[in-house]
Amino acid sequence: MPTLFDPIDLGAIHAPNRILMAPLTRARATREAVPTPIMAEYYAQRAGAGLIISEATGISREGLGWPYAPGLWTDEQVAAWKPVTDAVHKAGGRIVAQLWHMGRQVHSSVTGMQPVSSSATRTEGQAHTFEGKQDFETARPLELSEIPRLLDDYERATRNALAAGFDGVQIHAANGYLIDEFLRDGANHREDEYGGSPENRIRLLREIAERVISVAGKERVGVRLSPNGASQGVDDSDPASVFVPAARMLSDLGIAFLELREIGPDGTYGRTDVPKLSPQIREVFQGPLILNSDFDSRAKAQAALDSGVADGIAFGRTFLANPDLPERLRIDAPLNQSDMATWYSQGPEGYIDYPTLDEQSRAA
Ligand SMILES: Cc1cc2nc3c(=O)[nH]c(=O)nc-3n(C[C@H](O)[C@H](O)[C@H](O)COP(=O)(O)O)c2cc1C
């Protein structure tokens, strides 16, 4: 069985190790969703990852409701991403852009329009807005006639990602956002060809993946799914019935990698008792399978590789707090803990100031 430190080809992307950086929203862009120079420093610090998956990045104004998160729909955003991808490459790393449409989880005070989703539903709780948290609003169902425009938005974002120097893209189909709102029957109540049977609910993901692949090539396209348990209010009555065929469909398309965010009963950031689907997905997905959630030690991550269920591990909070995570895992060094208070705060604090081991030993 491979170790975490063995290389792996994720489609056309040659990763020198199997330690991926999971996508992490950090809200350090401008109000207009334009990346800022500290983002180049932050990602370059983490270039030791086999592959960096960027923070979720809006494909359109309609799809991005998170204050100060970045986008990929304007020329200004593309130009400002370029120094970020350049800095990662110069530091020896690789980075793909996570393409994000938040569906019903946006607020009109940020996007200037009513949220869209598969159906007229509303998330419980409150949305992040520039004016603090506000109650989520009821979404309007996407019209059939709007789907071509949505696919065009994904195409434009993919072209822009490549123009900005990203090594590829990851389609964000997890965590209760738009694509997940089509996949799961707890949010999708449509009666047309995008609702009802699992095959119909998978249709939007397939069409988006095909469109993105038509631009970037299958070897540069990954997908993220969150197949077990409710995710930000989106759930399914029979997760295996939709996620196993979705994974088979993605396998048939030949994507570069599939990443599963699978929380468990011991999750420290979300918990569920719903059994993990990764063993079933492993059987139908032929490409590299990456697992995420709560791998906060070398032993836990290596055990997942040893069991044969995963080809690589994506680390979220541990990468956030440890810019030199691969080196720390290699020598099994202690890990910094991430500070929730600065997850989404603007500015450099809690962003580019987590120390490396070297910096810690020099300070001691
Ligand atoms: C601050 C923060 C921001 C996150 N942003 C994203 C995101 O932009 N896209 C995404 O798919 N998941 C996002 N997640 C989920 C993480 O990618 C990951 O699934 C989660 O942190 C569990 O993994 P971990 O136990 O390794 O931290 C975020 C999590 C945190 C803590």
Automatic annotation (TrEMBL):
Cofactor field: FMN
Gene Ontology molecular-function annotations: FMN binding; oxidoreductase activity, acting on the CH-CH group of donors, NAD or NADP as acceptor
Family per similarity comment: Belongs to the NADH:flavin oxidoreductase/NADH oxidase family.
Domain NADH:flavin oxidoreductase/NADH oxidase N-terminal, residue spans: 4-334
Family matches, as InterPro entries: Aldolase_TIM (IPR013785), OxRdtase_FMN_N (IPR001155), Oye-like (IPR045247)
Protein's name according to its UniProt entry: NADH:flavin oxidoreductase/NADH oxidase N-terminal domain-containing protein
Annotated Pfam families: Oxidored_FMN
Cellular-component GO terms for this entry: cytosol
UniProt keyword annotations, A-Z: Oxidoreductase
